Amino acid sequence: MGERTPRRDRLREQLSHDIKRSARRLLVEQGPSTLTLSAIARDVEVTAPALYRYYAGLHDIVRSLAADLVTELVEEMRSAVERRPPHDLAGRLRAATYAFREWSVSHVVEFGLLFGAPSPEAGPAQAELAKDWMVRLGGVWGPLVFETWRRQRFPVPAESGMPVDLLEQMSNYREAIGQPELPAGVIMVFLDCWRQIYGAVCLEVFGHMGPAITDHEPLFRTMVDELLARLGFPGRELR
What we know:
By secondary structure, the chain is an all-alpha fold. 68% of the residues lie in helices and 0% in strands. The mean pLDDT is 89. It contains 9 helices and no strands.
């Protein structure tokens, strides 16, 4: 009896993994509309009701798949960061930003699930998806931006000049990420940089700048140079 439980746990873990792998394959190869419990069940060769032994429903499968995708993306970004020396904050910020774009443009459908319009397949889990990627991606970029400010005090908006409702939101965000000592202006610069990066990648992934722009990389690199200059780093990357 003692050996049956670990074996059962391994089988359960394997099938749970197979279910998510099937969901991702259906999503990528056939589109979100094909992502149904019955399609996943057929693919993993179980009955649709059997899926409820592992997940609460389709939204739960999508939520778990999305968490795995965020993990995959964050690991690629962290790996890119760690290839740069610890003292090279500009290089680390650049590496994280390029890795985000590279993953996004090579995983268009997955990007759409995480960052696009609310997904009907995600159902009530959609808000959790957004919260998860915001926190975890912020955990890659945020410490680099905050350490940059501590080292070289790049210009930030004064709290006295912020509208009350904006200051409140920046204050709430810095508390949520455990950085209560940072000026709200640092948080604002950080979020504004993220907004520009996210916007540029969305325009590229969803094809909203074609046919005017056929090669997004030079434009993206120029934007990153400008953002790094805003953080007080002189010069441009040698190409």
